[in-house]
Model the fold of this input.
Amino acid sequence: MQIQTPDWVKHAVFYQIFPDRFARSKQPRKRLLREARWEDWEAMPTLQGYKGGDLWGIMEQLDYIKDLGINAIYFTPIFQSASNHRYHTHDYYQVDPMLGGNPAFKELLDAAHERNIKVVLDGVFNHASRGFFFFHDILENGPHSPWVNWFKIEGWPLAPYTGELPANYVGWAGNRALPVFNHDNPEVREYIMEIAEYWMKFGIDGWRLDVPFEIKTPGFWQEFRERVKAINPDAYIVGEVWGDSREWLDGTQFDGVMNYLFAGPTIAFTAGDRVVLEQVQSRDYQPYPPLFAAEYGQKIEELLQLYPWEIQLTQLNLLASHDTARLITIAGGDQASVELATLLMLTFPGAPSIYYGDEVGLPGAIDPDSRRGFPLEANWNREIYQTHRQLIALRHTYPALRIGDYKILWARGELYIFARTFGNEELIIAVNAGTASAQVNLDVASLKTQPNQMLYGNAEFKWQGEGETQQLALTLPPRSGCIFG
Done:
């Protein structure tokens, strides 16, 4: 079987936005809440407080996003919900009125598409919420409810709000706020397929699927793919699977997953022993223990062999998300860790995904703290911002960085060097994660050309010899990286 994935994703740089925290509209809009008691934008986020970000606010910032070099946005959930993160869906057909409702989303979608920015929505199809109409009907009518087979009811009465009594229904991860759908019920399955189709027809460019590994019903994701791709063959389907994802990446289900198998080793190599363990230990990825270059190279080789190349090119590569602490906080505030990891992400096959605010050095411990309001410009880290802009621009300029082969040239001590090649375009990327300067004489007979233009960083290098004996003498300052082509 020929695996097919959407071509645009191979050339995409994603921006992940948590809608309540990115921007509040500054324009006069018809709002549902005029005197809303929002949490202070700059204050530490809380589990239940809203800061009042909305889709109009995002629309007003699209030029900032475009200027950064972003050409795709992944939104965490935007449907009506009684939670600031909106993973507790009330109504899959209504964009949350606090965000501006369906009309604001249509306006945003059109404005994004005018700028050639794709939009991917978060599909929370494993579970709904206590406020979801069909579940609410069961709460009101008990066994008489016509929707009783839509969920996994285990006994009566249901206890949705009190911890003293058994819930008597299955909630995701034991959480009674999140009743799990009965996906074996063909009506439930059809309902979810129709939601997916509805928003595809509305004009979105794909779905990110929340905890899709929880849905065990045979053929479910195969049918999901068929029905989504029937509306838009170029739609992107990306699953939130943290580990080995081969069973979903066989070409019949997802185009990619959130690539935590890239994030873990990349952080462990670039941040090393700076990693603050309590920020990572409760999560399903491994940014610890520290890795030397050889171990990092081995993990990257293994990752690149795990899936077909066509899938590798549409993986969603990330360093942080709403489910993790932010990289600068994981790295104990160390800026070089952020810049080196970002360099590795933006030169890796697959679509890089930047979590809003990471590009300006926004800190944040595990959630809810990693979901802070996007900072005022006065509080940006300008160096981290420029690093992101420069690296994203280089990725867009050189096809080799997006779809070229990936070959490790050197991985010893704390020095890691690899080449990305596409036709006659050859780039060499080097990262020195150590605290001392690194020198190397590198045998690079495998390259057709001698890349001799420094595109990023400030290493010193010179070429020696010809043909079979050509060598690259490279000196890289401590805690720095470079790209030449």
